[in-house]
Amino acid sequence: MATLIEKISNLEEIMRTRKIYVFLVVILMIFIAVFFSYKNFYQTKEADFSLLQKSNSLTTAAHDACSGDNFLTRIAFAKMVENDFDYQGVLPEHGYIAVNEKCKIALALYHDGECAVKSILDDDIEVLEKDYHDCYLTKDVFYEAEIGGLIEEGFLPISNIEDLKAIGSNENHLFAADYAFQIEQTASLDQKYILINDLDFEDEQWLSIGAYNEPFTGIFDGNGHKIYNFNNETEEDIFSSEVIDEIALFHTIEDATIENLTLQGSLRGHYYLAPLAIYAKNSSLSNLNVSFTIEGTTWLSGLIVVNENTTITKTKVDTSITGADGLAGFSVEGDAFSITNSYVVGTISGVELISDFVLNGTSGSIKNSYSLLNIDAEYFLPIVGGNWQEILIENTYYGIDSFDYDVDIDAARLKSELKEKKTFENWDFENIWYFEENNYPTLR
């Protein structure tokens, strides 16, 4: 009886062992199947990938970061080939793959007399009539795709001075002529515009965009580009009747957005001169870098002349202003204005009524900003003048050489102190400001 029980027990143990064995075998078979499926897929896509060549125009950094043995990049490439280039299983005869700094992929594949260009930023395939050797990619394909996307969002591309002059003409104009994304449209003051090139205004005379009763009400995105040698091209005496006053890039902006722009140049005239705008109402100005020399008599500003309920953020003004009175770094007049995370450097020379931020302010705020102006005048109003009691000044300073003369103790700091990080309490040095020891803060 005991022997029978032992045999049954041994049989149960054998069965349990066999079940475990079968289970392990099944698991192993599944693993092998998955492995070979994965391996074959990887090798297949690698074979496809090996037909393509890296475009010579791409940066080595982008190539190292996003191609080579990067499996995710190859998967993305494979999916693009499968989804967007159907050659009935026939591999393309010739092709390029391009990867930009953000690891975005673009393809140019040649097959059966056609060159198909595809960017991962663009949903459409562009089939071009190019021969075998002309089917290639450069990093421009990403730029064109990005600009193309912005055009779909309603932006008009500004590629040259004629495009810029067309703003507000209310006439049909071909924007970005000779570009793949060129577009013909009526150029009105309420459109959205994006700068796609630096613009050199040398030998170009400028009359401001818009007017007081016809303000610019759209969006102007400088896209990181600059307008330079901007001037009103006059050699006349500033008191001459030939001199045109009220000169700026925009005469008046209202409910507008101006951003991501560098503006450089010089202006001469009687009064109402500023680089960006004469009047700014209910608008937003951000990420601006403005460097100008201005010569006149009065109402001269390094940025805008009159600020009505307009916010200014992350803006640098580097100015050299020479006049009599009514001179200011950011605006001559300000009502319900806001200046944040900005600074002004340079020189202002005059007689009286001079301020580094706002000369005549009635209400508003200046926060996390500083001035490093050299002032040559008999009467100077630091930070803001006018009804300064109604102006909120917070963590904002102006640099001085010494305390040997009457200064506003609350806002005044020795220039040497402005080179010390501890001076700037509650400033954002991770995302907005950059600080290097023994140097003044700069915007990122």
Defining traits:
alpha/beta, 19-stranded parallel beta sheet, Pectate Lyase C-like, 444 residues, single chain, 2 domains, 5-stranded mixed beta sheet
Would you kindly provide a written description of the structure presented here, covering whatever features stand out?
The strands form five sheets. The chain has a 19-stranded parallel β-sheet that branches. Strand 2 and strand 3 (105-111) form a beta hairpin. It has helices at residues 2-50, 60-66, 71-84, 140-152, 161-166, and strands spanning 53-54, 94-99, 105-111, 114-119, 126-128, 155-158, 172-175, 183-186, 192-195, 199-200, 219-221, 226-231, 250-254, 257-268, 271-273, 277-281, 284-295, 298-301, 304-308, 311-322, 325-328, 331-340, 343-349, 352-355, 358-367, 370-376, 380-381, 384-386, 391-394, 397-400, 412-414, 433-434, 442-443. The model is unreliable at 30-91, 120-125 and 238-243 (pLDDT under 50). It has 444 residues and is an alpha/beta fold.
Pick out the low-confidence regions: 30-91, 120-125, 238-243
How many structural units, i.e. domains?
A: 2
Number-wise, the strands total: 33
Backbone CA Rg: 32 Å
